[in-house]
Amino acid sequence: MINLTIDNKAIQVPEGTTILKAARMNGIDIPTLCHFELDGMNFENKPGGCRVCVVEVKGRRNLAPACATDVMEGMEVFTHTARVINARKTVVELILSDHPNDCLQCEKNGDCELQSLTKRLGIKEIPFKGEQSHYRKDSTLSVYRDMDKCVMCRRCESMCNKFMTAGALSGVNRGFQAVVAPAFEQNLGDSSCVNCGQCVQVCPVGALTLVDDIAKVMEAIADPTKKVVVQTAPAVRVALGEEFGMKPGEIVTGKMAAALRRLGFDQVYDTDWSADLTIMEEGTELLGRLKKALAGEPVKLPMFTSCCPAWVTFYEKNFPDLLEYPSTAKSPQGMFGAVAKNYLAPKLGVKREDLIVVSIMPCLAKKSERAREELSVNGDSDVNFTLSTRELAHMIRQCNLDLNDMPEEDFDSPLGESTGAAVIFGATGGVMEAALRTAYELHTGKTLPKIDFEETRGFNGVKEATIDVDGFPLKIAIVYSLGNARKMMEQVRQGNPNGYHFIEVMACPGGCIGGAGQPYHHGNSEIIRKRMEAIYREDAGKPIRKSHENSEILAIYKEYYGEPCGHLSHEQLHTHYFDKSDKLEATK
Amino acid sequence: MAKYKMHILICGGTGCKSSNSLQIIENFQKILAEKGLSDDVQVIKTGCFGFCERGPIVKIMPDNTFYTQVKPEDAERIVNEHIIKGRKVPDLLYTNPENKEHVSDSKHMDFYKKQIRIALRNCGFVDPENIEESISRGGYEALAKCLTEMTPEQVIAEMKASGLRGRGGAGFPTGLKWELCAKNKADQKYVICNADEGDPGAFMDRSILEGDPNSIVEAMAICGYAIGASKGLVYIRAEYPLAIERLKIAIRQAREYGLLGEDILGTGFNFDIELRYGAGAFVCGEETALIHSMEGQRGEPTLKPPFPAVSGYMGKPSNVNNVETFANVPVIITKGAEWFSSIGTEKSKGTKVFALAGQINNVGLIEVPMGITLREIIYEIGGGIKNGRQFKAVQTGGPSGGCLTAKHLDTAIDYDSLVAAGSMMGSGGMVVMDETSCMPAIAKFYLEFTCEESCGKCSPCRIGNKRLCEILEKITDGRGSMEDLQELRNLAAVIKDTALCGLGQTSPNPVLSTLDNFWDEYVEHVVDKKCRAGVCKKLMSYVIDREKCIGCGKCAKGCPVEAISRTDYTAPGHKLASMVIDSTKCIKCGACINNCKFGAISIQ
Amino acid sequence: MANIKLSEDKINVIKEIAKSFGNRPGEVINVLHQVQGKFGYLPAEVQEVVAHELNIPVSRVYGIVSFYSFFTMEPKGEHPIDVCLGTACYVRGAEKVLDAFARELNVQIGKCTADGKFSLNTLRCVGACGLAPVAMIGDKVYGRLTPDQIPGIIAEYK
User: Fold this and answer.
1) Same domain (yes/no): B302, B361
2) What pLDDT score does C1 carry?
3) What does the DSSP assignment read for A453-499?
4) What CATH number is associated with residue B109?
5) CB contact (8 A) between residue A152 and residue B462
6) Which residues constitute the domain of residue B33?
7) For an engineered disulfide with C133, which of A527, B131, C94, C155 has Cβ 3.0 to 4.6 Å away?
8) Contact residues, chain C, for A191 at CB < 8 Å
9) Residues B314, B170 share a domain
10) Whether residues B384 and B285 fall in one domain
11) A73 among known catalytic residues
């Protein structure tokens, strides 16, 4: 243990602790800007670049960055001397002098770390006038970039390269011109970006924001010729409450359904329903592959989950040789869209193009997934609009509603019933657990002795286990972060030395609960933990917890699809992947 | 060297090369061959002699005759007179500017008198492309001594005792640095030579590499032995093709002679050197940035700790020293720490190489003992200010240093006295300025450099230096106010206090030191809107005296922006109407002044 | 992501260079040095191929190219002109020399003349401070320059 004083307070912290952590552990909150850590989720951005967290250390010539300076025995740290405050204010004033300061119209107004820092330091004017950086605005279907607002914290770059290994963003240029951008400052959409959107989730300011689709949805709702239905993903219900002042981890399923009705959606359905459907398809597909493997037939194993759209784009761009490994099952969003347009529309007596399907997702990549050409018919997408959790919250507020005041309501039928297996899709390991519950019982015909799979839960970035499926040792792995997924794919390229059968991949930290469309967590990983606890609480409270016991699912197979992985489900509920990698093409 | 009777040493350094010294070499060889003297007289292309002002330099050994400003056609005369008849060619000798006497032996020239050449000991004496010449002058003796007579601990102890401090800028004790790296156990360690000389106006590292690459190869091997590294890397500017070429030759020859590679001198010690190329980033002189650059990354510095001695290149313990530091190492080993530490001041031992440049008579590369005064350098070695003008300031330490003034002329120069005076040693740039230099403009020049070279990682350097530069621009444009001077000082202090790396932390020095030493000049710019040096264009206006103007119109013809037109006033005694300059169009290029034969145009 | 279009010869040159460095990502700067040595500059497609051969994101390659001033994405003129703006040259009037080049050639700093004959750039210290102010045209060093010499020097190359 190291003894030191911070602001004359004697404290003791373990060796290797930074001044910043030591201070926070002792109730002294030194402000930061570039520093960002997801504790326990293997992500830290610590370039020591913004210099907001500088403190005075007795005996040191210059000020020390608290985020990156380890404590030392006998150290005397001062966090608010006149010298420190002056330096910190000057640094923030400098940052503001190269910032548009159009806070009122900014997407991040009220949620901006630079804004709160400015307020906290009491900065009332910017003494420095000079050149401001200007860059071309750019947008994908998911991410909007306005680099005029960039503060060079490098969080997005770290996220894109270290955590995701997508490699779309890099620090470019130098000096005053330095900024984070794709190669050649080309459109992000032309780069290796997978639209995971985590750059948006970690951006402290409004440089990276989501593409706002609220207006389009409002317009559809207002159109009397359209019937507008909505589906809501599992992770949304455990996070939406945060936007309305509720504690992280509050479950707002019923209130959300009520709010959606008041917003004017004609039918309020649940993506959880199609998550159960996904398990039926994907579980059946897995069993099919395993049976073939046991019979000695050539088959691609391990099978990967395919419900995370950033992950899908990632393997299309980086592993074109392995496109046969992931499950062909569409994501729950995609399946819902297909069922809605093909099965529900005739049932409701509307043409498919007059049925507008809106999805509420914790994710920004879903905005790009819904626009994939193969998920549309004659130019009409199965899912017409995707809103993130944050946009839904905006929309609720815009419509003068408060989630707190909403009554508890149910989803509509027939695409509204769901099981506990579906809700856990929202957390890392959830798809795996849901699939195991169903695959085990379908394969063995026996009831699971214990429904909770502890080995699939928790925040480890890579989890591995061997599950005894009635004597068959099923080797599974669960990863989040595309960096971990990349390692798995590289193993497959090397011949799958660990002999995995089934691997779940989610791009975002902790799975969809940590998605880029969720309320900003500003690096507070406790928020993500609370969301996960809520997910499993919701599961435990469900009367039915296995997808193959969902009565509405059983009904639709009976009435419409016949059997999982049957002819019609192949047509509507499965998809295929494309080689989207860079290729060298010689010209004359 | 024994078999030849005479040697003609010709400078092949960059400065002399650009004045055609290679042609001189060729001419000598041709003439000697024609006269059948090729077996008696050897022509050697050496590295820089230092006296670049008088280049190209040709030196005749053994009598040490020093010819200056030699032209290719002079080769024949030197051969005919000096080599054959033994008569010196007087008009090619250096002339003492004071008594106008010719000086033939460089030892007696003021430029060399006060110099002590340790790091530059072989520059101008050996053919840098021939390892045998190095060896004949004691090269690789130190390495042999270390490997056969000394333990690594003893080598480090010797280095510590010598008091040698890093010559790249900050002056960290070299022996201590080696010891820190030696302490860390690892399967692989690296010796890194920082040859990314980026200070504009300093070229000593380049001269050493061009003139004596073997001393660097030898020193790196000694360092490898001391810290337990078998790999050396030289990070060298790609803009230095000659230095790269000569270093490559030295490495190749050292391998051939068993002085690099496996089992060096049969002692079981393995060491080899590879080159890595810098690509034009001043910040890569900072050791963490340099290491990232070698690893194929953007050259952005990272926070220390961890120091390279713990986690450097590829995460392995690494020792980084610059070229000049290494150049001192072999001599310290052969002559001993006691000898070395007898030179210099209490806390700064040995010598320092400076690149003397600017408005001074003897521009060149000099090596002087620590503790010498600026006066000795400028007026004795440097031969005083050019064109008999007044000394105004000397800038040391490049973009990280500051400007010293007449009041510092008698300060004994060492690491600590320079810092105390608001500047720093830096890598050894020393630019002398006279009254034609404007100090706010000089500060702006350095800030522009820093802005261009800032990596952009930390806010104080990325934005702060830009703002400093903008304020200086305001001042030199005549738009400044006294509040701006206050802001300049505050901002400079905060940047010093908060920037991430050495480049950022020292970048405000040129501003702070000029504010301290030339406050009046700043005030003149902001209050009186005057630039006494006549440098700040926006504070000047070109005016035609209509009484003196004869109306010839030459000024108007030469004006690139058509700012000059004819008036309807004809001065008494003149036939044509006088001209006038439209100050809104004038770009202050000075072409009109040059074109006016009648002295009618002046700057106000 | 798009297909990278470059002539087969050029692709092969890059492949050879990358191979000579073992296609190791850490060698990217060395590879770029050699590739620029061959082509004179590093256009986007060339960087794409370098990235492809070293199996690193092209954003990283561009991050490096745009960081180091030695690397350029602009083609150089037939006669590249570099004016030294080191301190020694600066205090001896290098800026006026630079202005004279720019004016005489009607070209911006960092750019190439319309006919592709000259490109004008600045550099920091060529180490010929004794000859300040200094400019280089190709490999040839011109020392002790004054603005009025510039038209004559350019004429040598026309």
Assistant:
1) no
2) 47
3) -GGG-SS-SEEEEEEEETTEEEEEEEEESHHHHHHHHHHHHTT-TT-
4) 3.40.30.10
5) yes
6) 6-113
7) C94
8) 1, 58-59
9) yes
10) no
11) no
Known catalytic membership, residue A307: yes
| B91 and B219 housed in the same domain | no
Q: Which residue spans of chain A are classified as CATH 3.30.70.20?
A: 129-210
* Catalytic one of A15, A219, A324, A374: A374
Q: Which of B19, B279, B589 sits opposite C70 (nearest CB)?
A: B279
Q: Where are the alpha helices (DSSP H) in chain C?
A: 8-20, 28-39, 44-54, 58-65, 87-91, 94-105, 150-156
Residues of chain B with pLDDT below 70 are: 1-2
Residue B549: which CATH number?
Answer: 3.30.70.20
Catalytic residue among A327, A359, A381, A481: A327
Question: Do B201 and B277 sit in the same domain of this protein?
Answer: yes
CB contact under 8 A, C7 and A171: no
Q: Into which CATH architecture does domain A2-80 fall?
A: Roll (3.10)
Nearest by CB to C63, which of A166, A172, A317? A172
In angstroms, what is the C-alpha Rg of chain B? Answer: 27
Q: Does C90 touch chain B (CB under 8 A)?
A: yes
Residues of A whose CB is below 8 A from C54: none
Tell me, yes or no, if A175 comes closer than 8 A to chain C by beta carbon: no
Q: Where are the domains of chain C?
A: 8-65, 79-156
Q: How many domains does one find in chain B?
A: 5
Contacts of C61 in chain A (CB under 8 A): 183
| A182 reaches C (C-beta below 8 A) | yes
- SS3 of A137-206: the string is CEECCCEEECHHHCCCCCHHHHHHHHHCCCCCCEEECCHHHCEEECHHHCCHHHCCCCCCCHHHHHCCCC
Compute the nearest-CA separation of A162 from chain C (Å).
Answer: 12
Neighbours of chain C (3+ CB pairs under 8 A): A, B
Active-site choice (A242, A250, A285, A433):
A285
Sequence-distant (≥ 6) Cβ neighbours of residue C21 within 8 angstroms? C27, C30, C31
Tens digit of each residue's pLDDT (9 = 90 or more) over C24-47: 999 999 999 999 999 999 999 999
Q: Do B463 and A94 touch (CB under 8 A)?
A: yes
**Span A463-490, mean pLDDT?**
96
Give span(s): CATH 3.10.20.740, chain A.
Answer: 2-80
The CATH number that domain A129-210 falls under is 3.30.70.20
The CATH topology of domain A214-573 is Rossmann fold (3.40.50)
pLDDT tens for A240-278 read: 999 999 999 999 999 999 999 999 999 999 999 999 999
Q: What is the CATH number of domain C79-156?
A: 3.40.30.10
Chain C 124-143, residues with CB within 8 Å of chain B CB atoms: 124-132, 134, 140-143
Any domain includes B430:
no
pLDDT at C89: 83
Q: How far apart are CA B365 and CA B355, in angstroms?
A: 5
Cβ-based contacts of C47 with chain A (< 8 Å): 183-184
As a whole-number percent, the residues of chain B with pLDDT over 90 amount to 71
CATH of the domain at B388: 3.10.20.600
pTM of the model: 0.93
CB contact under 8 A, B487 and A127: yes
Q: Which pair of tokens denotes residue B213? A: 């690459």
**Interface mutation target, options A170, A177, A580, A581, chain C, most CBs of C under 10 Å:** A170
φ, ψ of residue A334 to 5 degrees: the values are -65, -40
Nearest to A51 among B456, B460, B490 (CB): B460
Catalytic site includes residue A369: yes
- Give yes or no: residues B500 and B377 share one domain: no
Give pairs for B306-310: CB < 8 Å, separation 24+: B307/B180, B308/B181, B308/B192, B309/B177, B309/B180, B309/B181, B309/B183, B309/B184, B310/B184
Asked if this assembly's ipTM is beyond 0.90, the reply is yes
Amino acid type, A109: N
